[in-house]
Amino acid sequence: MSLMITDECINCDVCEPECPNNAISPGEEIYVIDPKLCTECVGHFDEPQCQQVCPVDCIPLDPEREESREQLMEKYERITAVES
C-alpha cells in the first residue's frame, strides 16, 4: 500500500524532506503523498521515514491502494531507474 496523510496533519514540514522518492508535497491545505511515487520506503529503509518523524501520527496506510512488498519493490526499481 502506499501511505496517505490524513486531515490531522499540522503542516509541520518534517515529512517532506524525509521522503527518498519525493512523493510528499504541499497540498492545498495539508501535505499529500503521490501514490505513484510512494514505496513505503521499500528499497531505501526498513520503515517509512515519514511515519517515523510525524509528530501527530497522521500517515497511515492508504486502504484504497493495496500493494504487496514485491509490488512496492518493483515500483522502487522503476523510480530509481528513471533517476539514473
What structural class do you assign from the helix and strand content? alpha+beta
Series of secondary-structure elements, N-terminal to C-terminal: EEHH
Computed Rg: 12 Å
Spatial order of the strands in the main sheet?
1-2
Tell me what you see in this structure.
- By secondary structure, the chain is α+β, with helices and mostly antiparallel strands.
- It has a single domain (16-83), classed as Alpha-Beta Plaits, CATH 3.30.70.20.
- 24% of the residues lie in helices and 7% in strands.
- The protein has two helices and two strands; from the N terminus they run ββαα.
- It has helices at residues 49-53, 69-83; strands spanning 24-26, 31-33.
- The chain has a two-stranded antiparallel ribbon with strand order 1-2.
- A hairpin with a 4-residue loop joins β1 and β2 (31-33).
- The longest helix is centred in the last third of the chain and has 15 residues, at 69-83.
- It is globular, with a radius of gyration of 12 Å.
- The model has no long low-confidence stretch (mean pLDDT 95).
- Residues 1-29, 31-64 form the 4Fe-4S ferredoxin-type domain.
Would you summarize the structure shown here?
The protein is α+β, with helices and mostly antiparallel strands and 84 residues long. The protein is built from 2 helices and 2 strands. The protein has a single domain, classed as Alpha-Beta Plaits.
Architecture blueprint of SSEs:
Elements: E1 24-26, E2 31-33, H1 49-53, H2 69-83
